[in-house]
Design goal:
Layout lengths: L4 E3 L2 E3 L6 E3 L9 H11 L8 E4 L5 H8 L7 E5 L2 H13 L4 E5 L11 E6 L6 H6 L16 H10 L3 E12 L4 H11 E13 L2 H4 L2 H9 L6 E3 L2 E14 L5
Parallel strand pairs: 4-5, 4-7, 5-6, 7-8
Antiparallel strand pairs: 1-2, 2-3, 8-11, 9-11, 10-11
The structure holds S-adenosylmethionine.
S-adenosylmethionine binds next to helix 2.
């Protein structure tokens, strides 16, 4: 998952090139961020009331606002105070009207519904996160199979979607992707893939192959040997129409 760093802790939105501030301790956008944004731009029309959940530096919501997909004010939240302060600053810098809140998963949005909830809360195995360079000082309390926070969002999301609303989630094979997809299919009648990309293991994971094999044998993650290397996958999933009317 290559990062989109262009200087020390600065990052550009993938489509407009806007330069966002991203201090140490805030998740640095990656290829998955870029795939997530591009998949949404290719799938949704303008004018969605939007929540960017697990916002990091705010790159997803700001990009969607830049393209008119997200209506303003755009809502953002993250469990990290620093991420939310950073998002607020980046929104101010680019004139994106925002409502930025600190809190875990959907806690900050009691009673509020959105046309589009983009949930990019941490979603890889804690062991993979610890071995990789992606989550340095960034909260990733996700459990061995990486699904704990994502499953909580799936479980609670129907209470935060309008009747035609959508939940968009990157499902990473560095977590228990099957378990997450099963939960989505139980909760929603319409679950579809809107983007997918394969990635080669970064050097930190290549040097931890016994651990990666153990996690794979446990069913906590999935990856393949292909083209003489190790490949993992991000799938961008869009879920709509709560099953049983959301009950
Ligand atoms: C993979 S990063 C995504 C950040 C941003 N969307 C991006 O692509 O750059 C995951 C984000 O989820 C946040 N996070 C972790 N645990 C959370 C929780 N319980 N509730 C809300 N956000 C959480 C992290 O602080 C981090 O900013």
């Amino acid at each position: 998952m290559p990062t989109m760093r262009v200087d020390a802790r600065g990052t550009r939105t993938p489509t407009t090139g806007a330069q966002l501030h991203c201090p140490s301790g805030v998740f640095e956008p990656t290829g998955t961020t870029e795939l997530l944004i591009e998949s949404i731009l290719g799938f949704f029309s303008a004018g969605q009331s939007t929540l960017d959940l697990g916002c990091g530096c705010g790159i997803v919501g700001i990009s969607l606002a830049n393209h008119g997909i997200a209506d303003e004010p755009v809502c953002f939240s993250d469990v990290s105070d620093l991420a939310v302060i950073t998002t607020q600053g980046n929104c101010n810098r680019y004139g994106v009207t925002s409502d930025c809140r600190v809190g875990s998963t959907l806690d900050p949005w009691k009673g509020q519904r959105f046309d589009l909830v983009v949930s990019d809360v941490s979603g890889i195995s804690t062991e993979v996160a610890a071995a990789s360079s992606w989550f340095e000082n960034v909260p990733c309390d996700t459990g061995l199979d990486g699904s704990e926070l994502v499953l909580e969002v799936v479980e609670r999301s129907c209470d935060h979607l309008t009747s035609s609303g959508s939940l968009v989630i990157p499902v990473l094979s560095l977590s228990n992707a099957e378990r997450i997809l099963r939960a989505l299919e139980e909760k929603f009648d319409n679950v579809q893939e809107i983007g997918r990309k394969d990635w080669v293991f970064p050097p930190e994971l290549k040097s931890q192959l016994p651990m990666m094999q153990r996690l794979k044998d446990l069913g906590a993650v999935s990856w393949e040997h292909r083209f003489g290397t190790q490949i993992w996958t991000t799938t961008i999933v869009c879920a709509r129409t709560p099953a049983n009317g959301g009950r």
